[in-house]
Amino acid sequence: MSPSSDGLAYVVEQLCGHINDRISPLQRKRADLPLPSGEEVRRVVEMLRCVLFPGYYGVPPIPVDHTRYHMGATLDAAAKSLVEQVERAFCFFCEKTGKGCCEDCHERSSALVVEFLKTLPATQRTLMTDVQAAYEGDPAATCPAETVFCYPGLIAITNQRIAHELYRLKVPLIPRIITELAHSATGIDIHPGAVIGRSFFIDHGTGVVIGETSTIGERVRLYQGVTLGAKSFPLDEHGKPIKGVKRHPDVEDDVVIYAGATILGVVRIGKGSQIGGNVWLTHGVPPGSKVSQADSDR
Q: Three-state SS for 174?
């Protein structure tokens, strides 16, 4: 039995009527411009991965003497697509916040993408330290290339480092799409706002959560199930969480945090500390600390 046209009309009316102007993209002045495409952002990230790890990704394999040409062509295609996605995001949020039409969104998007492209060499150098940290930190790794091809931690941190640069440039929506693509693929949830130092290694990785205002120093190693989260959220006069305030931990250099550990709130984990498996911490620890589950229960 198929539904009647009256029944379908009722459902459609109810669905449309429940979209309020805080979430609806339907009333934008630039109705000709679609919303950002998650699939296109994913394609941009894959192209960026090709230029950050030349020779590792992309088909067909590129001869060595064609690397520069191929990298330039790939980067050009990625940049053009990224400008469009960033423009879509800006226009959507202009309408949402009542700032009027988006006449300058294209120029603004183009300028920001140029600034983003300038960060890629530094991002690549940092990712090379992450690759080496993964190789040196895991006795099961047979070579650095294996960590690039196979390790979910490298996928997640690559996406996060790309997204973080866009986040710093105050590009809306796109950075979060990029980190959530890695979250879906790996089970590792790193907010684009997190500040993460060089030689960062997540071993195994599933279930790792790193919040927006976390900072992580250099040569830090995390295992699966680690959470760097918020203990509580300050509320405004209407009882809603206040946005943009510090609420996550700071982890100093050379810290190791073992599987299942949870660290919550605005606390500092001192340099060279080791946080044991399944530890629950809501207070900071001085440099060189070794915290076990028994210690954290006290």
A: helix
Task: Rounding to the nearest 10 degrees, give the CA dihedral for residues 87, 93, 95, 101.
Answer: -40
Q: Structurally, what CATH architecture does the domain formed by 28-187 represent? A: Orthogonal Bundle (1.10)
**Nearest CA to 87 among 23, 22, 24, 40?**
40
**DSSP 3-state assignment of 210?**
strand
Each residue's pLDDT expressed in tens, for the chain with a length of 298 residues: 567 777 788 888 877 776 665 566 655 555 566 889 999 999 999 999 999 998 888 766 666 777 788 889 999 999 999 999 999 998 887 754 444 445 678 889 999 999 999 999 999 999 999 999 999 999 999 999 999 999 999 999 999 999 999 999 999 999 999 999 999 999 999 999 999 999 999 999 999 999 999 999 999 999 999 999 999 888 888 888 888 899 999 999 999 999 999 999 999 999 999 999 999 999 999 999 999 987 765 5
Domain-wise residue ranges, the chain: 28-187, 207-298
**What architecture does CATH give domain 207-298?**
3 Solenoid (2.160)
DSSP tally for the chain: helices H, then strands E: 8, 14
